Every structure is written in C-alpha cells, then in structure tokens.
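I'll show a sample.
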Amino acid sequence: MPGAQSFKLFIGNLDENTKTNDVRPLFEKYGKVVEFDIVKNYGFVHFQNESDARDAVANLNGYVINGNAIKVENAKSRRAPNSNTTKIFVGNLTEKTRTAEVRELFEKYGTVLECDVVGCRNYGFVHLEVADNVNVNDAIRELNGMVIDGQALKVQVSTSRVRQRPGMGDPESCYRCGRTGHWSKECPRIWNERAGVGAFRERGAFIPPPPPPAFLRDRIIDGFRDFDYYDRRDEYARDMFERRYPPMGRGSRERPYPIMDRMPPPPPMSSMSMRGPSRDFPSSREMFTRRSPPGRSMSRGGGFSIQNHLKNLSRHISSSLQQSLKRNPNWGTKKPHRNIKIPLSEYLNMTDPKTEEILSPLRQAVKEQGDLVRQLKTDGAPDFDVKKAVAELKARKKILEDKELSLAPQLMSFDRAKMEDSLKRRFFYDQSFAIYGGITGQYDFGPMGCALKSNMLHAWRQFFVLEEQMLEVDCSILTPEPVLKASGHVDRFADLMVKDLKTGECFRLDHLIKAHLEKVSSDKKATQELKDECENIVVRLDGMTKDEMGAIMKKFNMKSPITQNDLSEPMEFNLMFATQIGPTGLVKGFLRPETAQGIFVNFKRLLEFNQGRLPFAAAQIGNSFRNEISPRSGLIRVREFTMAEIEHFCDPNMKDHPKFVDVENYEMILYSACNQMDGKSAMRLTIGEAVKTKLVANETLGYFMARIQMFLIKVGILPERLRFRQHMGNEMAHYACDCWDAECLTSYGWIECVGCADRSAYDLTQHTNATGIRLSAEKKLPEPKTVEITEAVANKQVLGKAFKKDAKAISDLLAKLSVSEIEAMDAELNSNDSYKLHLNSDVTVTINREMVSVKKSSKTLHVEEITPSVIEPSFGIGRIMYALLEHRFQMRDGDDQRCYFSLPAIVAPLKCSVLPLSNNQEFAPFIKQISSALTRVDVSHKVDDSSGSIGRRYARTDEIAIPYGITIDFDTLKEPHSVTLRERDTMGQVRIPLDEIADVVRSLAYSKIQWENVEAKYPKFEQQEATK
C-alpha cells in the first residue's frame, strides 16, 4: 500500500477498454509509481515524489489513449480524522443556493478542502481545515441560523466520517471496505460490484443467475402483478428485489420482500406453454392464441444457453403455478381496474319514477344551496360567507352526481388493466426512462402511439387550419420571464409546498391541511367547536397566505403523512419549469405552460399578414410543460404534453360568426352553470337555441363549440360519452366572459379534453401595458368623426439636461398620461409652476412649465382603434388520445382474450395490412406489387409474411387498430388476379380485383366511401384452405 507521504493523481476520461499496462508505463517515465489503479473509466496513480507528479500532470493532461484525451490532475484531498479537518453538515438550503456561496461563508474560518451541495435534497457538506488556534465550534455557532436566500441555515458537525484517501488510517486495512488482509485493488468488493452482487459479499459467494429475457419475463411476471402498471413505486423495488434474490429450486426458502405483502399466487400456465409451435395448420380454437417461445430443437448443444436456462426455469415455474392454482383457483379476479362500470351519462333523464323519487330531495338540496349562493353574491355578503356556501354547494353536487351515476343504467363494463396491458405490449406508449425506474408523469410514444398522434394532429390541421383558413405559427418553447409575468403565470401559477425534512418528500400544503383537518374532525373525541373550526379553515384555504397556512400547521402540529417526520416551513412552488437562458444565467426563463402566449406576442405581425383585417384566427401545435405535483392517471395528468390551440381575434362589439348558420341546428349536450347550481341534469339542445337564449355568450363561441364536437366525433370519441360543461362563477377566470369544457366520460369519470373560452381582451391588454407597444387593430368607421385631443408634449432637451438618464422614462410616462391626469397637471403648473411626477413607488421628480407643455387640438378620425377580444379553443391532445383509446377498446363476442381498438381509419396508426396466406414463393411478386401501389397513393401499411396462421395475424393487426387487411391467397395467382379485403370491426371480407385494391383502400382510409359501399359493390369472399 502507498505510504503516507505519497502524492496522488486522478486520471479521467479513460476508454472502457483501456488496461493498466496501457497507461502505467506513461507515468513511470516521470518518476517512481507507488500504486496504480484503474476503476472503470477513471483511475488513480500514486507518485513517491511530488515534483514527479507535477511533471506528469503538465505533460500527460490531454494525452490521447485509445482515441480519448485523458484528464490528469491532482486528486482532491481527503484528510484523516486525526488531522485538523472537520466535516460539517449544512442543511435547509434553498434551491437557489449555489456551492460558491456556501464555500465563501466557510472560507473566513479556514481552508475549505471540499464543498458539495446536493441540489435535489437542499443540503450539503463542507470539509473545513482550521488552524491550531481556531475552534471549529465557533464557526458552527456563528453560521448556524444565518439566513441565506430567505431560509435559516442548519449547520452542525456531520455524523459521517471524513472520507479517507488510500494510505490513510490503519496501514494494515483496505481503504475500500476497512477490512484487513488484502490490498485495495484485491478487495472482494470490486469483484462483487462488477458481478452485480452486494457490496461486502466475499469472492466465491453465490451470484444469482441472470433474469430471463424480456419477452418471457414480461409474460411470467408482469402479467401476474396486482397493480396498475402506470402507478408503481414499491412494485418496481419488489421487481428488483425478486431479480436479485430468486427462489433457488426445490427445498430452498424464498427470501421475503421486506416492505410489501406477498404477491397473490399467479394464474395457470395454459396460455404460456413451453412446447414449440405446431407445424400443422392450427384449429379454429387455437388460431388466435399467442405464439410460444422457441422449441427444444433450438437449444441443442452442451453448456449454458439461454434456451436451457428458460427450459429449467419453466419447469420450476410450472410446478409452482400448479400448486398456486390449487391454493387459489380464483386468482386474478380481484386485480384493480378489472371491472369498471361506466354508466350512461346523466343527461339521459331519469324517467323511472322510482329513480326520480330517490333523486328529488337531493336535487332540491342542491337548488336551495345554489339559490343561497346567488343571494349572498347579490347582497354583497362577506367573502368568507360566500366561500362557505360555495363549498357546501360543491359537496351537495358531488352527492347528487354520485347518486345519479349509481342509479344510471350501465353502459358497459370496462377492463382498464387489460387495455393498458395491450397498450404496453404493443408499445403505443410507455413510461419514459423505464429501464431506470421511470419518471412519473412522463411518457414515450412508441411506433403505434406516435403514428396515432401524428394522424390526429394531421386531421386537426385539416379540420381547423385548412377549413377555417387559419394562420399557423410555431413559437419558441423557451419563454423569457417578463412575458409570463405580464400574462400572470409567474404570480398566479404557483402552489404552496412543504417538505419532509428527512426524506425530502414534497406535499402540496392546501391538500395536506385539508386531509389533516378532515382526519381531526372525524375523530370521535373531537368537540363540536373543533369540528366547526376545521370546517371554517377548509372553506378559507383558497384565499389563505403562506403565513396563515404556516400558523395552521404549527397549531395542529402537522407531520409528514407518510413518515411522521417534521415538515419544513411553507414555500412557494411554481408549476412552471424554470431555467436560465444563456451562459451567464442572468436571463431567467421558463418552459412555456401553454402555447397561447407565443401567438399573443406576435399579434401585430399576424395582423399585418392578414392585411389589418378582423376577424382572423391563429393556430399553434406544440409541447407545453407543467411541473405537476402529483401527476397521475396515465396521459390525463402529465408534466409534458402536446397542445393544439386556436386564438380567434374579433371585434369585441361584434362577435357574430359568418358560418354560424351552418351549425345552428347541430345538437349538443350542454351542462350549464345554472343546471349545476339547481341540481338539474345536462340538456340536449341545438347550439342555435343555446346562443339565442344567451346560455352560450355569442355566436363565435357557439360556432367553435360545435366544431369541437364535430372534430372529436370524427376522430372516434363516442357522442353518447361527450358533453360540454360550463364553468361556474367560482371556476371562471376574472377576465373571461364565458367558458365551456368538452368533457369525455372515461373509467376515471368525466375528464376535460378541450377548453373553449371567451378571454375578452385580457392578454393583448396585459402585453400592451408591459411593453408599451399597442397590440390593437383599426376598425373603419361608417362616417368620419371629429375628436378633441389633449396631449402632454415633453421638451426633451430641457429634460435631458435636468434629469440625465431618467429623462427618457419621464418622457415616456408623460406620453401615457390620461386626459384627466394631463388636465390636473396643467392646472398645477399654472398655479405653482411645478408638478410632482411619480416615476415609480420610490422615485418622484418635480417638473416645471419649461419641461412640458399641454397641447389641445381636434382631429378627424376615419378609423377607430380597438383591442380585439379572443375566443380560444384549447385541445389537450394526450387527453383526447386516452379517451379515444378507452372509448374504442373492444373485445370479440365470446372471446375476451381477443382485444382490439376500433379506431376510425382517419386516425388509425396504419391504414392497411398485407397478408399472404402462406409462405408460398409465388405470392412474393404480388406482395411487392400491392405494397408499391399502396405507397404510391399514400396509404401507410404493414406487410406481415410471418409463419403464423392467417387468423392469428388478423388478430395481431386488429390489436394495433389496422382497419383493413389485404389477403393474398391462391385465387390471386389465377387470371384475373384478385385479393380479399377484410374489415376489422365486422370481420367481413370481399373479393376485389388486384388493380383496384389500392384506390379502394385509399378511399376507405380517408372516408371518401364507407365499408357498406364496398360490400354492395364487390362479391363476398368464400373461405379457402391455406394449402392447395
């Protein structure tokens, strides 16, 4: 081992194939090398002489070995415990605190050898070396409690030891594991870490065999899990545990998982036979079973092979499964989300007298509370009373809606777990970075999901951008802070959070307080006074400040609901992802939370492009980002999502739409705010009636609501599970005139998929005020009119001499004064010859008559300047996709193992499949001819010439939603050449000439004709055998 006086260098950026013999001779040229270690792609070298080490650094840093320029530098010091070095823990840091700031605090007390801030956990460690005459406790006492970035630091001596470098401590012990009897480079820990075993297991200890390959492991393990695939945390840990500690054959004891209960026994292996596939043509009963793994003939030969491993593994699993089946014959029946009842919508009136008799008192209770809310608002009651009444109204509404849904006739029984299994297996989408454990609220789209999303966006462009002649833009995702400050996102797009001080787990504060107070008030020992206090606090939560919520936390001694650890002080958590733009970090920005702001800031350019005319609409498709505290429910609540937004700019006094007459008779399901407050159900009426009665605010809003419903139905949303719900008064933004959400009924309940709001002129006005650039349009007047103009004209020369750099700000402020302010200034100047002008809250300047003059004139106007109102339909593409997949997930009658997605052809990932009946070589020219013809007419397709039966291949294509299948059979070889065309949903087949098939499929794929037209024109197909 190296001596205590040796000098250590760090070697980095080594190629993974670099060996000790490749590098050590280079360093030995500069002096005596005491020890040399390579660890993965880096290593350490110990020189006996310090000057030799410095020569090596000067000459070898950047030297190229195996194509990599290596990094050679002095290794960072790790002092021994008996030196003057102390390791200090620094806690309660903010996310803004940087390493340099912490280092600077400690440097006044001694030499900081090392300073590490763990940003994601808000703490750090400092290795401080102090002089003999300095007491490190004095430094700790002075720094403990010091406020940095708004938080009091927690400084104390670290409970962990100072990290040692090789050669320190006991010369007989290994510095890697602390044991004696071996050198560090011979430490068993290295061998076990490379083998994937625990850190301190000795060489020769048992190393578990590798897990089975993914295709079999998924079938053995994932299918038997009793949890929702997209909501797993402990399950991932269990999976890792079971891979590391599997049962070791007959008689061995399985190591119990330390956290969770045992898994339920798995199902029988009837669908997972290990026999090789039959060479005979399958029977009709076997035609749609999944293919088995490779047969015994593929694993011949001695020694270890993956086939032999699977064979032995399958024997062990089969035996275990048979025993489990005897113990629990009903395995899998209690798996979550297996049998979700989706009721008919409540807009189907409860015509059953018995049902109405049950619901009548609940409706009356909601109506009474709704009337009370209206009365309180009319009378100008205190805000607390209104909030309390609204909270009670929401509670009564929830009881009524739950009762309605429970009494409604069942529309279907839905197996969400089976659908999500299909989506995962066919890789429509899956959790991002799954091999690293996954990130909650982030998903990657696979080939089918990507194609589905692309087709949906293409249909959206056709339906809105092209048909409505909109102006499409593509704006930057990175948005500077001032833009979102003006829009209100910086100030209002935030929640209060608290952290578990030990684990770092975050909790949304209002949810935490509400849950805790509900638990307190439900306690049997709680007095009526305590219950009333808790109820009042919950009602006032929405308007509480950070200090008020913090006081409630302390009063009720709230702890972490998971660990019962202490919680931090409340802190603001902005739901936008913050970043710095540029290398200096001085320009703060965010990832955009919506695409709309990019359109608003470009309004002036868009208006010019449209030749200055209103109305016009701009559209944008792109990703937005929101740092959701608790993302859940698959694609419904995520952190990164695709939006398609429209901003329709129109005259605020003329919100008629020229094409409204085309949709006025279109029927829709509308759930108005009045009906919600009165306890009534949604209504079916035409959009023309809704606009006429002012249920919908104006024609433009009504027109877009109708178009939204048409689009959703076109892409496959079921109309009986679609409604529009109006925002109630307490939900609507203060600037909005009216707002409706298109909601789809899913197994999660009603979810908002599209919002359609009249945003008035709020956004353009905010950006005008922030920038001083008028975002307005000119409207031609029917007749010219004369107006009186009063303006303050600054004498820039005099202002410049008097106020220097502030002169421009004063001049700009004078230009923004209103007429009343100008007249008041003029009067003050006439009487006192001076006027105090407030530049901001801190600066006031005094101007005189020489610096400014007031001019009055008359002007004839031919145009009027107006700030347009905005009607905004906003589409959440991910939510629409999820609702679509759930609405269109089907199972064949009599065979619930045959699942498929009945997506409309316009959005289906692939439009057609090409399936030869067998591997007959005579079919090859026809496959090529058909594939080329489909490509020429822009029809996406998939050729499946695998050896499976035709029925099994039909099932595979149905599962990925391919609507049409072309089969090449032995009749295709005959003159005139023809093929069969199969439709997915009905499974009907017709015979079509070869030279017509591409045009027919294209017409079907783009809804030019319907399947019924094809069946009427071409003869039905009669089944034939696979061989002739």
Q: What stands out?
A: Residues 494-574 form a domain with the Herpes Virus-1 fold (CATH 3.30.40.230). The chain has a mean pLDDT of 78. The radius of gyration is 36 Å.
